[in-house]
Amino acid sequence: MTENSQATVRVIGGGLAGCEAAWQLAERDVPVALYEMRPERGTEAHLTDGLAELVCSNSFRSDNWETNAVGLLHEEMRRAGSLILNAADAHKVPAGGALAVDRENFSGAVEAALANHENVEIRREEIHDLPDGDSGPVVIATGPLTSPGLGAAILARSGEQSLAFFDAIAPVIYKDSIDFTTAWMQSRYDKEGPGGDAAAYVNCPLDKEQYEAFIEALLAAECSEFKEWEKDTPYFEGCLPIEVMAERGRETLRFGPLKPVGLTNPHASAKSYAVVQLRQDNALGTLYNMVGFQTKMKHSEQKRVLSAIPGLENAQFARLGGIHRNTFLNSPRILDPLLRMKAQSNIRFAGQITGVEGYVESAAIGLLAGRFIAAELAGAAVRPPPPDTALGALLSHITGGHLAGDGSFQPMNVNFGLFPPLAGKVKKRERKPAMARRALDELAIWLEADQPPNSAALVSKS
Length: 462
Prior knowledge:
The protein is built from twelve helices and 17 strands. By secondary structure, it is of the alpha+beta class. It folds into two domains: 9-162 and 329-448, FAD/NAD(P)-binding domain; 168-325, Elongation Factor Tu (Ef-tu), domain 3 (Beta Barrel), CATH 2.40.30.260. It has a six-stranded mixed beta sheet, covered by helices on one side.
């Protein structure tokens, strides 16, 4: 692995974290070489060679910064000049209180912004090995689907073994194949989202008999078999396949992704026993993904089992679900508080490989890695965000907030449990808004000392 100019920072991985890291560097006048191995080498989960492709859901989850930690992370990243959040806002689709995007337009906007930036060069090639310690700053943001060669090199250099888990993908359905004499459009509790739409989800109702038949079919379905070396790999608890949830109890799904609360079926007077929800997946509104329906069922079984859901009898699938093996580092042991590899400080890691879970969380760590390197190259003090911000809480979790030596480090979504407690007594219903306000106040102070030289608009809606 060679580089002509040591002033150029190499960012390995064209996912959300790598793209965000590259953008933060480029906006601070740091030359960047962004490496993406697709299409030279594909993965089990990607369908295109586009940068920042969303391989699972198209949702960035809640956009409410006052009461939801991921919504707060959205707001912090917007204020920090995030490319990923700007592109998401420019290409959002109706999703109730969530921020969901048209995945193709989102990916295209991110790639166009980087391709048109004077400080970014995109290189389509696979990196097989780690650089040496004298080769300049490097960001490794290869994500949970790191190629085998590079993954082996990381393990050898770190002296550790990476952890691994299985992650699943939900099916996507053509909207015009849904039967709306049975299904209906409504957001839970009629909650309006960023676009003001209170009917953002397709809802398919099940009565008790239909629900029990669905569970029986689900438990009897033939699933993909794991390779011998994969059999001891656990699932990530935040993204369990529906059949695994069903195995834990026949009512588990009814209190999870199929919960019927906050929904009123206009086609029937009786309350639904369970409800399957689908969320818009593209700007045209032609594709909808099945919320919480990650699955490892074989493709033929998915069509059989899912087509038995009322309203989906004639469903046409644009994409069927799947499962893939993810890897991540034992970051509390491997990384220092500024995301540098303890064994080789010119290498930083970013994104899901560090042990954060979720699109926004991954991009957030890329944002921090880019800013940290830019500050170092400018000879400035590298200041991590305060731990009572969402950015700082995530950073603290993966670099020391977790018990590093107990062997239980697992991927984590941002949540208020990662934040330091408030001073004094605060009523329970007021705690999250108070923590959010504190976070944004602290973020403003942190950002004041670290503004990029460029102030032009990041991404415009096409």
